[in-house]
Structures are given as C-alpha cells and as structure tokens.
Write a structure and sequence with these properties.
The structure holds 3 protein chains of 3 kinds. Chain A is mostly helical. Chain A is built from 16 helices and 6 strands. In chain A, α9 packs antiparallel against α12. Chain B is an alpha/beta fold. Among the domains of chain B are: 103-175, no CATH class; 250-335, no CATH class. Chain B has helices spanning 50-56, 84-90, 113-124, 130-143, 160-171, 190-206, 219-225, 243-248, 253-260, 302-306, 326-336, and strands at 7-17, 23-34, 39-43, 65-74, 77-78, 96-99, 178-182, 211-216, 228-233, 236-242, 312-313, 319-320. An 8-stranded mixed β-sheet of chain B has the order 6-7-8-3-9-10-12-11, sandwiched between helices. Chain B has a 4-stranded antiparallel β-sheet with strand order 2-1-4-5, covered by helices on one side. Chain B starts with 6 loop residues before the first strand and ends with a helix. By secondary structure, chain C is an all-alpha fold. Chain C is built from 13 helices and no strands. In chain C, α5 (99-135) crosses α8. Classes of the chains: A mainly alpha, B alpha/beta, C mainly alpha.
C-alpha cells in the first residue's frame, strides 16, 4: 500500500491535479480569513462594477495634496476621454475634409490630437455631413479643448445652518494625493456582480459551497453505489438480478431528467444546498454500482475469499476484510468522478433555475445563473461569469487529472 | 540430414529498457542450433526469459525489447543485421513463424479467419489473388484436419482448442522453416493439448516445417514432444542435452529441481506446482554476481557466489553450467532419494 | 440473422421495460414529493389575492385540470390514456395551448442541433484520440492535458465563451435564437440562411465539448488495443504496421459506440443547458421557460420527451452495434 501511495505521488498527472486542487482548497479556506464578511452582502449600487481599485473620491479631496508635473498627464487625460469610436470619427473628419493623414495611427493619442488641433475648424462643412454630425464634432472638440486646458475645479460646501454655498477650495490638474493617505480604498480584483457584490469574495465562497455539494453528492452516490454493487456482486442470484434490473434502468434513463423532476417537485423554498447535493447523489450512483459489481464478481472466487468463506466468517466481515481493500482504488476513483460531476450537475441545475434557493449561499451555478439573467455576457461584464466557468473547469480538471494519474498507477497497461 | 543447422544462434543477448532507462538482460549470451527434423524444447520457471528468448529469436525487435549483441544465422544470412522491414518481409511468417503464448487472444476478434489469412499472405506475396489464397488455406486446413468452415468464422465462434489449432495453421500457412511455439498448449484441456501436439509433430513429419522450438514450463510435456531440451534460468542456458538425458539424468541442480517438482512425468501430474525449489528467480535488474542459481541452490559452495561458470561440455557430451563435477552431483542426488 | 433475432427481441423488450419505468417515474416522482404542485402554482398565480373563495376556485380549477382530486392510480391511467391519444395536457404559461403543440417544433430544433453535433463531436474525438494513442510522444504530452482541460469546461461555459467571442465581439454570428427574430418560419431561402447562421455557435459548442471526452476514451481504448495479443501476433507474422493500426482502431472504436449509447443521456443533458445560453428554440430553452413560468405540465412533458429521445438513441446505437461487432452475434449463438 505504501508503495502504491509513493507511486501515486510520483505520477506527474496526479501531482499536477493534486496541486491545482490543493491550491483551490487553500484559497477557499484562507481567503475568507483575509477578507471576512458575508459574501452575499451588496457593497455596490448598480450593476457590474469593473475589476480594479476603487478610491474614495470624497476622501481623496480631503487628503494631503502634492503637486506633480508629469509630462504625459495631459495627453493621458484626453486619451481617457476618447473612445475607439471617437478616434475613428476624428480620423473620418480629417479624411473627408481632405487633410493629410497618411500614416496617422489613431491609437497614437498625441499624434491624433495634434492633427486634430491644427486642422479642425467648426466652420468647415464637409460634403455629406448633416447638421447633427457637425454638432457631434463640435461637442467632441469642446470636450477635448476643455480636457487639455483643464481648468481648476472648485470645491464648495453647503452650510447646513444658513443653506449658503461656500467655496472651500479648488482642485488643480496637477494636484495629486498619495493613495495610502486616502482613508477608503477598496480593491475589487473581480469587480462586482449584478447585485453589487464583491465577485471574488462571492466566488471563493461559492467554490467552497460547490465543493461541499460535490462532496456530499459524491459521498451519497458512492455509498449507495458501493453497497448495491457489493451486494449484487457478492451475493449474486436473485439479489443481483433485482439490483441489476434497476441499475440498468437508471443507466439509460438520464440522471439529470430525474434531477430536474425531483428538484422541481421539492419546490424552491425547500431546496437548500444540502438538499440539492443529496438529490444529485441519489440520481448518480449507477456507474459506481456497475463498476463495483464487476470488480466484486472478479474477486469473489479468489482463493483468499474462498478461504475466508470456509473459515465461516460472516458476509459483512468477508466484504470488509477480503473484498473492500481490493476494490478501494476503484471506489476512490469513482468517488472523485462523482464529486466533479456533482459540481457540474449543481451548476446545470442552477442554470435551469432549479438550483439551491438563492438567499442563503452562493454556489458556482447560481453565480452563473445570475450572470446570465443579467446578461453579463452581452454587456461585456466578463468578470461576472468567466472566472466562474474557469473555477468549475479547474476543479473538475484537477479531479480528473488526479483520477487519470491514479488510473495509470492502478491499471499500468495504459502507461506502457 | 545435412550437416549445417537450419538456424544457428550465437551469443544472442537482448534486453528490455524500462521507462526509467534501466537495462534488463532477459536473454544473456544464448547460443543454440536447430537441425532439420529435430525439435528443441526450452524449459524453465516463468520469469526465466523463455518467452523473451522466443521473441528474440525472430530478429524483429520493438520497444521495450532491444537487440544487444550476437548473431542469428538463417539460410546463410545474419538476420540481426538486416533492416527491420526486410526481416518483416522475408523472414517473419515465411522463414520463422511464431505461435504466441496466449493464442486464445491472438486472433483479431473482428476479422474473419480467411481475411486475416489474406492479410498474412499478402504481406509477403502482395499479388496473390483472393481465390488462390482461399485455395491454399482450404488445402492446408484439410491437410491438418481442421474444418474448412472455420475459415469464414470469427475467432469468437471457435472453441479454445480449435482456436489454438487455427493459429498454428495460420502461422505455418507459408511453410516456414522454423516454428517457435511459446507455451502453445498450456491453457488447454488434456484432449485439446494432445491434438495440438499431434498436429505439431505431424507438421514436422510432413515437412511443412523443418524444425521447431517448443517452450513450456512443463518438463514432462517436453519429453513427449521434443528431441532436445534446454533448461533456462535467469536469462541463461543452464543445461542442455537430449530430452531423455535432461529428463532422466539432470545434472545442473536447477534442472534437477525442476524435474523433482514433478514426481511422475505424466500428464495427470500437470497441475503439480514447482514447489520443490524454494525461492523465486532473481531480479534481472541486478542479477547475483556468481552463479545466478546460487541463492536458491542446495549444493552451493563459496566459489558459486564468486564467479559464474560458463556453459561447459560435460564428459557425457552434454552441457551444463554448474561448478561441481557431474558424477559428484549424481552421487548427491542418489543419496537424497 | 438467427443469432440477431434473439438479440433484437431482447433489446426491444428491454426498451419497452425502460420506457415503462420512465413513464412511471415521470408520473409518480413529482407526485410523491411532499410539495403539492397545484397548491404551489395556485399560490403563485393568486399572490396578491385576498379573497379566499377566489383562491379556492383557482385551486379547484387546476385540481380538476390535473385530476389531482382523484386517487393516484386513477390519475395514472388517465395520464396513460391521454398519452396514447398524444395528449400531454395544457400549458399553464401559454394557456390554452396544448403542450404537444408547444413541444412539436421544439423537438425538431433540438434533434437537428444535437444529433449532428454529437455525431461530429464523437467522430472528431475518436480520430483525435486514435492519433494521440498512435503518435504518443509530444502529441500526448501537449494535446492530452489540453483536451482534458477543454473537456472539463462545462457545456454552458463553452457556449458562453463561444457566444462572447464570436457573436458579441467578432460579430461573426448572431447572438441568440434559432433564426432572425423578425422572421416567421417558412421554407424560403432567406429563412434557411438565417437558420444556418444561427446554427453555427450552438453546434460548435456542443461539438467542442463532446470531442474531449470521446478523445480521451478513444485514446485509452486504443492504447489498450495496441497492447493486445493479436497485435503482437500479427506483427510477428510480418503484417505491415499500417494494416495492424487499422485493426486496432476499428476494434477500439467499437466499444466507443456502446460508450456513446451509455453516455448519450449526459451529453444531451449538457447540450440542453447550452441551448439556454443561445436561447435556441429547442427543448432546453422550452424547459427553462417552463421552469421560470412554473408551467408544470410543460416541464413534465419535456422531461418525458427527453427521456424517450435518450432511450431511443441508446436503443438505436445498440442495434447498430450488433451489426458492426461480430462478437455480439457469436455471443447470442453460444
């Protein structure tokens, strides 16, 4: 046994899978310590804040200022105002009015701006341009001029007693604050979702829940499958016939159909994460039962089992001592597969709107479901769904890698 | 009988290279001669390199088995020096044929026997028509007493003994000079076993094959089948002689042990296990420095663990690998009885 | 043919038995659950109503519609009777449309999407797996982990990624639906073109997910076969490697047919969820709408039809298998 375990840990596939899995597990365990709090709490108003670091505008106004004169500050400021569409339109104007824009790169803000400044004239009336088009360019030009001039902004405060607005100071374009001096800074590595929740925090918590769901589903399925397989394989006869009859039926009747029917009938209010996990387990024991049975059949006439039978040991003892140890590797492999398919089943169920009820915990499937309901995929909020897909894929990838590694150790034929 | 052997093997050494790059010499400086009309038996426990020797004799090596050194002379040509494709085309199946250990699974389960025979024949005679091949196969099957209906069957439709005899017929369809049979009968029941052996002898007598190597772990079987016997241990030949000599008057303690483990050389005792020699063959990754049998030998002396004795010709004209004198050994064997 | 008849009879009987079991499960499972679906639906419909008699009237109406006021066995026989007449009840959400009417078109969208996609995925996967087994070096090191990773992306994930990359960003394909939203299904050329444009993304996402699993299965099957005794024997008879490789792949592919029959349920399940992402007018989307609208008769009918589809395809694959693998015939004779 020790030898086998050493061999397993020498299999590169197993090691990579194990590493990825442990990394995710550590993340699930440690991240909540670093960033405690309820993962379902809405911290943002409005949908889908981009990933990044958020600095309190209010606090930064009051923070200690320094004046920095950075050479590229102006063009950066203007550049941030110019969308890709604006740049294309600027180039179009220059082209239509017959200016020389040979070799002009529209992503080179400085070159584009200098061309624009030298050539733009609001009075020009390029052919085929409507009044609305000309107005657009006029507005764009104003914005650009304002941005490059960058007049100081004045700060004012309303006196609560008199209701008078009093000027308190101004902010110039060269004023900076040190980010560490700002009291409230929040980094949201994966932004917020449609409810304004911190996606990373939610994701870590969801990964944890989904792992638990997978584990419960896997345990339930493995226990049922293991016992049915053991009984069918070891006892044979009519017990085998009956068990195999049901096993064969449930092999062809798709498990997810049963899952849908049961989940729907349970009703939204009753569906906690645990319930969903148990239901998944109840509908996916078939494969374990089948493979355990065939293993047991090949074992039951081995010498050591016969010896045990002759010694008058009880059926339970024979199964426990003489059969179970030999099929353990298969059972473990089947269990790993069940865990990963359990996680997937939860996700699919949630996407159908039949997942765990939404008020308690986030799961990977629910996050995916919310992202789709709020069209995150159509409005470019990749952070709301892509990390979820990747986490599901990575969990099941790592489990499958471990399984392949185990398979190569236990079935060496695949390795040669 | 001519005075040159059909096939001569000189100092053949082949090795397995494991995944970790270790060399395992499973056939270690083996020499043998095959004479027309005489069959050679090779005996030994499992793990002694018998099957590897069978594979090595064909001059066609693929990983993990590799050629190391030595010659295989067939028809005046050294086939170990031929390019593999030439060996495949001109030696395998046409000059040397092979019957595998697990003949039960040797046939492609999804191909009819006749189609497989077509593949075999066409690999060597590309332009032979289907009709000619069928005629050849039918004629051969009839001659060997096999039903010609099985030509159109799949392997799964044949019984175990029938499958084995069909495999033998396919292997020899092109009348090779040398037939290498690796435990062709060990998985069969007594009746089928007898039929297989009768068939092999018959083929020798009819001249369908010139000579044969028969490999088995069942010594008494060899006595009934082959003219000469070689005993193999840990990749080396430890004893060789005529079947009668090796079976009734073994010299090397290993050969003696093998014989003793079978009390009566009759088929009824086939199932008796080789329990007489305690221990197992050595790990060939690190073979013992001296005589490879020394760790298990009852008659071990200090010199046995130092240097490995070469195969030497004894006064009685046979060859053995033991340091001790043959008569001294015979006396010891007699006193123990 | 004699050997086959026994096999086919066995398979047909088995198909009938599983079909019966599926019917029983489909009918009884929801009814054995603690929750009362009629009450749940009434509750949702009547939310905001305070008049107890009105609520009770709605409840009674649905009870009668479902027949839930009658004993369970009687309900079951009514259900069977209706079923033989092709009546699966009336939809709640699209009242008074018949469920069969709604599903009638959805079935064909799903069949024409999934059948070709799963077959293409199966074929490509097998070719890739066979290549991986044969070439091994490099191929095995790079492509195997990659395929393994790809095959672990869930079906809906693949669908979303393809949708975002090719429809939203590159605009190569439309975002959702089975045809342009301003069209009415007809036999015109324009309509067909629109259908094909909408077909690509769902099709390829199903193909891509199917490839991975099949390739991995085929690879280990081929490696297993490459080590088989008949390969060694054929080699030592001087048969060319190219011919032997043909034996091996044919033999490795056969169990893959059975494998497909056994896994088709899971594959269709994944593909149905992928349909939702594309809002494809098939059974998956219908099921999703039915769930969100609490349309109980529609859900029950959809699950029944999906089950029947899966059973039928597994049955057909079994029949096909009998013709391509001689071992089946031999097993029946002996």
């Amino acid at each position: 046994m020790k030898h086998k375990i050493r061999k397993i840990f020498r299999s590169p596939l197993f090691l990579v899978g194990f590493g990825i899995f442990m990394l995710m597990l550590l993340m699930v365990l440690i991240y909540p310590l670093i960033n405690p709090g309820n993962p379902l709490q809405s911290i943002g108003l409005g949908n889908f804040a981009r990933p990044g670091t958020y600095v309190s505008l209010y606090d930064s106004v009051g923070s200690q200022r320094s004046v920095l004169r950075l050479p590229e500050a102006d063009s950066k400021r203007v550049a941030s105002l110019l969308g890709q569409e604006d740049r294309v339109k600027m180039a179009y104007w220059l082209d239509v009015t017959g200016k020389d824009i040979e070799g002009l790169n529209i992503n080179d803000t400085e070159a584009l701006l200098s061309a624009w400044k030298t050539h733009y004239d609001g009075k020009e009336r390029p052919a085929g341009m409507t009044k609305a088009d000309r107005n657009f360019y006029e507005r764009l030009n104003k914005r650009l001029v304002a941005a490059s001039n960058a007049p100081a902004l004045s700060l004012s405060e309303t006196d609560p007693a008199s209701g008078e607005t009093v000027e308190k100071g101004s902010i110039g374009k060269d004023d900076y604050v040190n980010i560490s001096a700002v009291a409230n800074v929040k980094t949201l590595p994966l932004g917020t979702d449609n409810f304004g929740r911190d996606v990373l925090k939610e994701l870590v918590s969801a990964a944890g829940t989904s792992l638990v769901i997978g584990l419960i589903a896997g345990t339930v399925a493995t226990l049922i499958g293991l016992w049915l397989g053991l009984l069918a394989g070891y006892l044979g006869g009519w017990v085998d016939d009956v068990i195999m009859f049901f096993t064969n039926i449930f092999t062809v009747i798709p498990g997810f159909v049963l899952l849908i029917l049961i989940s729907y009938s349970i009703g939204q209010d009753q569906r906690g994460a645990t319930t969903v996990a148990v239901v998944i387990g109840l509908t996916s024991w078939v494969w374990t039962a089948r493979s355990v049975r065939s293993q047991v059949i090949s074992l039951r006439n081995r010498d050591h089992v016969n010896l045990s039978k002759l010694s008058g040991h009880s059926v339970l003892r024979i199964i426990w001592r003489d059969i179970l140890p030999y099929i353990l590797s298969y059972v473990i492999m089947a269990f790993i597969l069940q865990v990963s398919s359990g996680i997937l089943a939860e996700a699919q169920l949630s996407l159908l709107g039949l997942g765990p009820k939404t008020t308690e915990v986030p799961t990977l499937g629910l996050m995916m479901n919310w992202a789709m309901l709020y069209s995150a995929h159509l409005n470019g909020s990749w952070w709301a769904y892509f990390p979820v897909i990747m986490v599901i894929a990575l969990i099941s990838f790592s489990l499958n890698l471990m399984n392949t590694g185990l398979d190569q150790v236990f079935n060496p034929q695949l390795r040669s | 009988m001519s005075n040159t052997p059909v096939m001569e093997v000189r100092d053949l050494t082949t090795k397995y290279i494991t995944r970790f790059g270790e060399d395992i010499y499973a056939v270690d400086h083996v020499s043998l001669q095959l004479w027309e009309g005489r069959s050679l038996g090779i005996a030994g426990e499992s793990g002694c390199g018998k099957s590897t020797l069978a594979l090595s004799l064909m001059g066609y090596y693929f990983p993990p088995l590799h050629y190391q050194s030595g010659d295989i002379i067939l028809d005046g040509q050294n086939i170990t020096q031929m390019p593999p494709d030439e060996v495949r085309l001109n030696v395998l199946g046409t000059k040397i044929a092979y019957i595998p250990q697990a003949a039960m699974n040797a046939l492609n389960p999804t191909r009819r026997i006749i189609h497989f025979i077509q593949d075999v024949v066409r690999a060597h005679i590309p332009h032979m028509t289907k009709n000619d091949i069928r005629n050849l196969a039918t004629e051969r099957f009839e001659k060997l007493g096999l039903p010609k209906e099985s030509l159109d069957k799949f392997a799964v439709e044949l019984s175990g003994g029938m499958k084995q005899r069909t495999v033998i017929a396919i292997s020899t369809i092109l009348s090779p000079q040398v037939l290498i049979a690796d435990e062709p009968s060990s998985a069969l029941d007594v009746t089928s076993q007898k039929m297989v052996i009768k068939m092999l002898r018959n083929m020798m007598d009819e001249g369908m094959i010139k000579t044969m190597i028969f490999i088995t772990h069942e010594l008494p079987l060899l006595y009934n089948v082959t003219d000469d016997i070689m005993v193999m241990y840990a990749g080396q030949i430890v004893e060789e002689g005529s079947a009668r000599e090796v079976v009734f008057d073994p010299v090397h303690p290993y050969a003696k042990g093998l014989m003793d483990s079978i009390l009566v050389p009759e088929e009824g005792m086939r199932d008796t296990k080789l329990a007489a020699i305690p221990g197992t063959p050595p790990n060939l990754k690190k073979p013992p420095a001296g005589c490879r049998f020394a760790p298990r030998c009852k008659y071990v002396e200090p010199r046995c663990t130092g240097i490995n004795q070469d195969l030497r010709v004894l006064r009685s004209g046979r060859a053995s690998r033991c340091w001790r004198d043959e008569d001294e050994l015979r006396r010891k064997y007699a006193s123990e009885r | 043919m004699k050997g086959y008849r026994k096999y086919f009879t066995k398979k047909i009987v088995w198909f009938m038995v599983t079909f019966a079991a599926a019917l029983v499960l489909n009918f009884f499972l929801p009814r054995l659950m603690p929750a009362d679906p009629v009450a749940a639906i009434t509750g949702r419909l009547a939310s905001g109503m305070t008049d107890a008699t009105a609520v009770s009237r709605i409840y009674k109406q649905y009870q009668a519609e479902f027949g839930t006021d009658k004993p369970l066995m009687q309900q079951f026989f009514t259900f069977l009777g209706n079923l033989t007449r092709g009546d699966l009840g009336t939809s709640f959400s699209q009242y008074p449309r018949k469920v069969t009417d709604i599903l009638g078109s959805a079935i064909w969208w799903t069949v024409f999407l999934q059948l070709p996609a799963i077959l293409v995925g199966w074929l490509l996967g097998n070719v890739l797996g066979a290549l991986a087994a044969y070439i091994r070096k490099g191929f095995d090191k790079v492509l195997l982990p990659l395929t393994l990773f790809l095959s672990n992306i869930p079906a809906f994930g693949m669908a979303v990624i393809l949708l975002v990359v090719f429809a939203v960003n590159l605009k190569w394909a439309p975002i959702s639906g089975g045809y342009a939203f301003d069209m009415i299904p007809n036999a015109s050329f324009d309509f067909m073109r629109s259908v094909i444009q909408h077909y690509h993304l769902p099709f390829w996402s199903i193909v891509l997910i199917s490839i991975g699993g099949q390739a991995i299965g085929m690879r280990s099957m081929s490696i297993y076969e490459l080590n088989a005794d008949y390969v060694k024997y054929a080699r030592f008879l001087g048969i060319k490697d190219r011919k032997i490789v043909r034996y091996v792949f044919r033999n490795a592919m056969l169990p893959q047919v059975t494998g497909l029959a056994l896994s088709i349920g899971t594959m269709i399940g994944g593909a149905l969820v992928a349909e939702i992402i594309f809002n494809y007018p098939g059974l998956g989307t219908t099921m999703y709408r039915a769930v969100t609208m609490a349309d109980y008769p529609l859900i029950s009918a959809t699950t029944l039809i999906i089950t029947v589809m899966v059973l039928l395809s597994a049955f057909l694959l079994d029949i096909l298998y009998a013709f391509i693998d001689p071992r089946v015939k031999a097993a029946q004779i002996n």
